[in-house]
Amino acid sequence: MFSAQEIFDLAIQIEENGEAYYREAFQVVGDSSIKQLLQWLAEEEVRHRKYFLDLKMAAKPGGGADWAERVSGAFLQSAVSDHAFSLDDIDFSTIHNAKELLRIAIGFEEDSLVFYEILQSFVTEPDIAGHVREILKEEKRHIELIEERIRETVPPCDSKN
């Protein structure tokens, strides 16, 4: 079983990983409009992380949020184990164009959606549930914006290596 604080820690980590990816991608892309999108996405991840950090700080250690007590550790762990959530496997030197870089970003956003949909299915507090729904909408919007950019003509990444 996870505590509410542990679940918020997972959400915080997901948002930190997303921010780190967008900031690293910003460094390798040359197109200014894509840079602008990546910077905005990184700032969105910071905002989401702050929300989950605030929730974590408000949760009482060892206190029982009913919804958190219903989340089985094995269930949540297996649900997230198939998803990236981490930058460990990304080698930016092997990414040859901005489309590829943006497709990886979609993978991060989709993984975030999976986690937040699981979280949403357990949350019963209206305030938390409302915020999770809002973050889900924002993550979906991120995917739409990234997909829109992929459909456009995208120049190759600038290579530092």
Number of domains in the coordinates? Answer: 1
Segments where pLDDT lies below 50 for 5+ residues?
A: none
SS field, number of helical segments: 6
CATH superfamily: Ferritin, core subunit, four-helix bundle
- Supply Rg: 17 Å
CATH fold-level name: Ferritin
Question: Gap between N and C termini, in Å?
Answer: 45 Å
CATH domain class name: Mainly Alpha
What does the main sheet amount to? Answer: none
Q: Helicity, in percent?
A: over 70%
Q: Structural class of the helices, strands and pairings?
A: mainly alpha
Overall shape: it is: elongated
Q: What is the CATH architecture annotation?
A: Up-down Bundle
Mean pLDDT: 79
Assess the beta-strand content as a share of residues: under 5%
The H-and-E topology, N to C, reads as HHHHHH
How many beta-strand elements?
0
Describe what this molecule looks like in 3D.
This protein is mainly alpha-helical and 161 residues long. It has a single domain, classed as Ferritin (Up-down Bundle). Helix 5 packs antiparallel against helix 6. It is elongated. The termini are far apart.
